[in-house]
Amino acid sequence: MQFLNGITLLLVYQLVGEVVVRLLDVPIPGPVLGMVMLFVTLAIRGATPEPVAQASNALLSHLSLLFVPAGVGMMAHFDRIAAEWLPITLALLISTLVTMAATALIMQFTTRWLVGHREREGQDHG
Are 11 and 34 in contact (CB under 8 A)? Predict the structure, then answer.
């Protein structure tokens, strides 16, 4: 029963995200907005309710099944992918490099900020 309560809560957040996106004409997918709202809710609560944890763990244990539609889509559109392999490859490579650079810069900034924050706390108490 807890699984059903958890999956219902996850689907309600997805539905609310969809409704908000359609009402406010926000340019992001409804499920993404619903996930952000769920994250904010869980961060405010400070803990994950047991039904949500059970439903999440059950979904994550079958995560590999969610890649089947993507694989089928690639096979269905193989001719187009083969015809446009160069732009696809370049887009993947460039976006990967940009993501890696952004991650490194954010990590560097965060590390410096945390070290500076800890040093200031040490000076205040010392």
Answer: no
